[in-house]
Amino acid sequence: MLPLLRGRLGKPYRYVESCPSTQRLLGEDDSEGTTVATDHQTEGRGRLGRSWEDAPGRAILMSVLLRPPAPTPLWPELSLVAGEAVAAALRAETGIDASLRHPNDVVIAGRKLAGVLPEASRGRVVLGIGVNVNQSSDELPAETVKPATSLLLELGRELERAPLLAAILRELEHGYDSWASAYRR
After folding, report:
1. Cβ-defined contacts of 12-21 (< 8 Å, 24+)
2. Which are the contacts of 3, defined by CB distance < 8 A and separation ≥ 6?
3. Cα separation of 64 and 10, whole Å?
4. Rounded CA gap, 113 and 100, in Å?
5. CA 169, CA 33: separation in Å to the nearest integer?
């Protein structure tokens, strides 16, 4: 699953087969752009303390470390920046009509395809990103506040996850750089 990454975000890139949560694998000393991806999270989290369930090897599960130059009260905007980046990457790579549903869900026709969970701490934001890629309907959570879907269900075919992950990082870098440019000196 190691994609070829050309931009600043995604470097360094670490992959682990399984972990409790990719967000926990980014340390205080990691540089901006460090990305961790996994095939399976045992304690994935969503917004408002909800759990994020996955079928091993079927989703994109990653976290990206940012060190925003903007004042801390503006950091929640990164949820929107990241959500728009995920939606744009999925539209470009697959042709689906993905869009952002405020504040952090990427949806297709009202069904949740992806989520973004930003967690801020001193001097940094870790963006947790989960995208349902190759899950069948029985591999998605049945009882959720928002109905779930996957790219497999929407497109009728399986997709390689690595090119999607790389596309998301490219879009995220573009969106983040545009957002942060107003605050860099």
Report:
1. 13/37, 18/42, 18/56, 21/45, 21/63, 21/128
2. 10, 13, 162, 163, 165, 166, 169
3. 7
4. 10
5. 9
Q: Which amino acid is at 26?
A: L
**b/e per residue, 65-85, with b = 16+ CB within 10 A?**
bbebeeeeeeeeebbbbbbbb
Amino acid of residue 39: D
Give tens-digit pLDDT for 74-119: 999 999 999 999 999 999 999 999 999 988 899 999 999 999 999 9
Mean pLDDT of 116-142: 93
Amino acid 38 reads: T
Tokens of 8: 């600043």
What's the rounded Cα separation, in Å, for the pair 2 and 22? 15
In the chain, count H helices and then E strands.
Answer: 3, 7
Four-point Cα dihedral 38, 39, 44, 50, nearest 10 = 130
Whole-prediction pTM: 0.90
Which pair of tokens denotes residue 6? Answer: 């050309």
